[in-house]
From TrEMBL:
Domain named Flagellar motor switch protein FliG middle: residues: 358-424
Gene: fliG
Gene Ontology molecular function terms on file: cytoskeletal motor activity
Protein name: FliG protein
Signal peptide: 1-20
Region ranges (Disordered): 196-219
Amino acid sequence: MMKRFSALLLSLMFSQVSFAQYIEEIGSLETVYEARARSVLNTILRPTDYTLVVAIEMDRDEKKLKEFHDEMDVQYLPGMPLMGDAPTLGKATNKLHEMKSKTDISVVLSRNVNPETEKIIKELLTSKLHLDATAGDSVTVKRIELPADPPKAEPKPDILPELTWKMWTLIVIMSLLALSGLMFWAWRRGRAQDPRKELKENHEYKHTEKDQDGEEKPEEVVAAATEPAAAAVVEPQFNMDAVKQHILAIAAQYPQLASRAVTEFTLNESAGDASLLMEFLGWDTSKRVFTDVPAMAWARLGKAVKEREGNTTKSESETAVRNVYKAILAAYVEHEMSSDETNPFSFVLKMREEERQQILDKETPANIAVLCLHSPAEVTAGIVGSLDAEKRVKVLAEISRVEKLPHNVVQAVISSFNQKLTEMRMRPEPKVEGASVLAKVIRGMSPEEEMDLLALFANDNPEELERLRRVILTFDDLKLVPSDILSEVLNSYEVDSLYAALFKTHSAFYNRILATLPERKAMIVERDLTDMVAIPQRKKTAEVRRDICQQVEKVMYSRSLRVGDLVDGTVRAVRSV
């Protein structure tokens, strides 16, 4: 019993001595790092502008500690000559650096130091002290008010300038100017709100002139005097630049329509107004945009220019441009309204994608082919892409065999679509996809519950998992995603997040994922997965996996790619109407 007690006592004493030795060596390393850090900081800061604290953690390795002490003893053997001053640690310090596991450097700066200096301090200390962030080394910069900082200057109260006679004079002048401007604005506003008063004043002035001269002036003169004022009040402002741009846009998009409208207006309405429009646009521009105007219309325009007498006023030009613009705009609106009715299948193309899909599921491949021939290219791609593989091949074969489409065939197909549409509206069949509902339920769960449920489906219900994989992207299906999409998504994640997501996965799987990363980043993650440096939290693994899948789904949606096509092995572009 006494022997056991003695052995226990000796072991406790030995552990206390060893711990004390570690504390001594840690202090030695901290002194070395602090000296190096201060030598760096003194190049950009004053010693009174900061203070420094270094904390180092060491591995408790008795073997390396013994090697360190042996080298120290060799350096200080009696009779060994020393070059210069006796070093504190000597070359044996390398053993201590090998035992270092983590370094935390805290720099406390004065509040007066420029904030841009913080980033420079971190970069210099990391570079000079050879710190490694992946190994846990860190540099923290904080700010406090140091005793050596100068006291803050108290703000002095603002003193208003003394009001001299010059200042008072300026105030009086500015007040009078403001008052006069306000009175002028009120007078103008009163006249603008009551235009009839101005007309009445003009009328009374004409009567006064008649009484003074003793003779009555003709009514035409009075009307000519009053008409410009009335026109100025009633006529709205006409934006000529906007009209010019709109006419040129319509002519560029529909040159035949614009040329036909100008021709009809020239031959049937007024060649003079059309010539004024040509001058407003420029004759060279008009010849370039109205390419289909016939020679007879150009002859009428030339005759109108030749017969014109005197200069044209601005109001006359605006009236002429307005009249021709109305004719062009009417033809444009009529064309836009009738363009939808030219396609006999417009009622099918305007339907929602779900309703159209229900009709196409019951239609024959020949009728679907006729619909595709009357649809835009992007709509045709969506229709063909939504069909199953067998029906898709038949539809494409029908399209390739079509050479002529008789009118009765098109009408028969339209009747078939109308009949299907009527049956669908009389007996609606709401389409409910269980896999889509289940996918929404799973994405509404927590990430850990989703990971557990997918694992349960993989073991007990693989058929349900197979249907679910065609709706949402599972983490195991990342190996099917194209490399460019994986690279775009995974490059935004840190190393620790990728390690947590790929933890305990097969080497073939994570090698496929790591192949899309930059070489250096992939090597770090692969080394951590091989060594299993740490066990990540299960919650973090589930969150990162779900987030990666959702980000990949967003990129695939932006590129019009379906999740189900990855499972089938056929990635195809899908565009919606």
